[in-house]
Design brief:
By secondary structure, the protein is mainly alpha-helical. The chain is elongated.
Length: 110
């Protein structure tokens, strides 16, 4: 096998594969539900309860979920916008970050 054959095999093996639309939709729906649940948990959180460190677990967990799911949701939506050619690169990322942050603000009542 020559170098050209190996290179051609590698190119054909490493072609990007787009996930099915249904998988992307399910991922976005799951992330949105996670963001909603975490935002709801934080919205119900009472400041005076934070004096006791035993009460820190739930709000901290909700904040971590909100950050991780929210960040991933921004990336998923930016990718979708980029694929639809509504925006490219940083513009898609900026637009989706704005949408997700507005959504979170509404849920937190701010």
């Amino acid at each position: 096998m020559t170098d050209v054959d190996v290179e051609r095999l590698l190119r054909s093996a490493l072609v990007p594969v787009e996930p099915p639309v249904s998988l992307t939709d399910r991922l976005e729906r799951t992330l949105t539900e996670s963001v909603d649940a975490a935002a709801e948990e934080l919205a119900e959180w009472e400041l005076h309860a934070m004096r006791d460190p035993r009460n820190w677990a739930r709000p901290l967990g909700a904040a971590l979920v909100l950050g991780a799911a929210g960040g991933t949701l921004v990336l998923v939506r930016a990718r979708q916008q980029h694929k639809k050619r509504q925006a490219s690169g940083l513009r898609a990322l900026e637009r989706s970050a704005h949408e997700v942050s507005e959504d979170i603000r509404k849920r937190l009542g701010r």
